[in-house]
Each structure stands twice: as structure tokens, then as C-alpha cells.
Amino acid sequence: MARCGVCFRHCEIPEGRTGFCGARTAKNGRVEALNYGRITALALDPIEKKPLARFFPGSLILSAGSFGCNLRCPFCQNSDISWSEQAGQYAETAETLSPEDLVGFALMTRKKGNIGVAFTYNEPLIGYEFVRDVAKLAHAEGLKNVLVTNGTAELSVWEELSPYVDAMNVDLKGFTDRYYGKVLGGDRQQVMAFIEAAVKTCHVELTTLIVPGENDSEEEMRELSRWVSCLRLPDGESVPLHVSRFFPRFRMQDRPPTEVRTVYRLAEVAREALPYVYTGNC
Ligand code: SF4
């Protein structure tokens, strides 16, 4: 047995088995990232797709994904690599890249407009060791590092990464403990603490996916955006918020897509407290 200290679950992992996220294992009594360097997706994406609206707009970023997730969002858009049965198979089948390989690809695409490496598609913090090792090398080459994350990790993980991460988009998926706990299998308090720590050193933008009947009230958006308005980025600016539209996917097919007018209305509510609010998927 080995105890993982990466997220609030603190899984006790039996030797040779994996923790809840499917990405960490116990070997010789120690926890290791099973997904270290295991790449399931690699693409040169516009930075706006992360989404980041106020970090090198118009640039491209080499985006890499692995497998596994420590949440259980029923509407996951990347279930094939996050927490479906198929995702577990990547432990056997995913390609392996070294940090040097990945940074090499990033450098090769520099002349096309690539500014660095984004760790995205699945949850990067459950494999933070690979992020750290790549990000160190990338910084040494003058590249930027970006995380797209659910923010569900202990602050000790962030402390290891913070010297190397330049920007991130964190999902703040709602603003009730009920939704985080019962629907997503997460911990809102851990996400909020992570965001509060991240804004001290890093450019942070947040994304809230509006799911009908779950987190679509004006009251919840008002509370969420007021909390965000108290945060300040290192340059003194306000934290941008992306309000995004849900589509039925994976295990949440019991409701229609969010009405576009609901997304626009909630974005207006957020603008009562925040200067930078963007709508997505509309
Ligand atoms: S990162 Fe994975 S193994 Fe570690 S505590 Fe979280 S769910 Fe468990």
C-alpha cells in the first residue's frame, strides 16, 4: 500500500494497482505516475481554444494530453482518455515521449507560431511529474508553459509546478459544494484554494460550463463572479471568466444543450462584477 498525496482523495493504492484517477500506481511501496510521458493526443492549437483570451492572443500552442482523471464529470467531452473504460487501455497502448522529445516537437513548431507547450485534454495535475520535467526544459528554451486543469490538487503539487507555469485555464465548474461533490465527484474547496494560490504567480483564466438544472441560476453566477472579482493576477488585473455552453455528452444525455440566451444572460450577470467575461460554445 502507498498513499497518494496529489489530490483530496488521498488514495491508498495497493502494490501494482492504480488510484481512483487510473493514472497513478504503487511500486515498491511508493506512488508513481503510470502516465508519465504517455501521450494520447498532440496538436498545435490556437491559444484561444484552451481557452485563454488574454495570454499571447493569436498565437498557437503545442497541446499534449495523457490519460486519467480524478473527477467524474458525467458530461466529459474527452471521456475516451479521461475516465471511460477505453481510457484505462491507454496505460498499455499510449505512445511514450520523453520530456526532451516533447520540447523538441515544440521547438520544431516554433516557426509556425508555437509559443510553448500546453498540458491539456485529460487532467494534467495527476501526472504533474511529467509536466514539471517538460516545463523546466521548455523554460530553458524560452518557451511558455500552459495548464488546462480542473484545479483539483493539493497546494504542494502547485508549489512544485509554479516556477515553470506561465498561464492556466482552471475549470471553476460551479459554486456549490453539492454540485462538485454529488455530480462531479470533486471538492470545490480544494479548487478554490488552488485558484487562490495560482493567481499569485501565474496568469489564470477560469471556465464555467453552464449545465441546465445544475449550475444555471443567476444567484449562483452572481456569487461565483463576486468571489472571482476578489482575486488579482500578478499584473494587478482581474481574472477573466469564460462562461461556456453545455452539450449532452457521454453519461449526461438526459437534457438538452444549454439555451444560448441563458449563457448570454449569465455572462451579463458575471459582468456586474468582472471586466473580462467571454462566452464559449455558442
Ligand atoms: S491523484 Fe489519483 S491516485 Fe492520487 S489521490 Fe488523486 S485520484 Fe487518488
Average of the residue pLDDT scores: 97
Oligomer state of the chains in this structure = single chain
Give the % helix.
25-40%
Shape category:
globular
Distance between the termini: 47 Å
- Decide which structural class fits the backbone: alpha/beta
Q: Return Rg in Å.
A: 18 Å
Largest sheet: 8 strands, mixed
N to C succession of SSEs: EEEEEEEHEHEHEHEHHEHEHE
What does this structure look like?
The chain is an alpha/beta fold and 282 residues long. It contains eight helices and 14 strands. An eight-stranded mixed beta sheet has the order 6-7-9-10-11-12-13-14. It has a two-stranded antiparallel ribbon with strand order 1-2. The radius of gyration is 18 Å and the shape is globular. The model has no long low-confidence stretch (mean pLDDT 97). The structure holds iron/sulfur cluster.
Concise structural overview:
It is built from 8 helices and 14 strands. By secondary structure, it is an alpha/beta fold.
What is the topological layout?
Blueprint: E1 2-3, E2 12-13, E3 24-27, E4 30-33, E5 38-39, E6 41-46, E7 60-65, H1 85-93, E8 95-96, H2 99-108, E9 114-119, H3 128-140, E10 144-149, H4 155-161, E11 167-171, H5 177-183, H6 188-198, E12 203-210, H7 218-229, E13 241-245, H8 260-271, E14 277-280
Salient structural properties:
282 residues; alpha/beta; eight-stranded mixed sheet; two-stranded antiparallel ribbon; binds iron/sulfur cluster
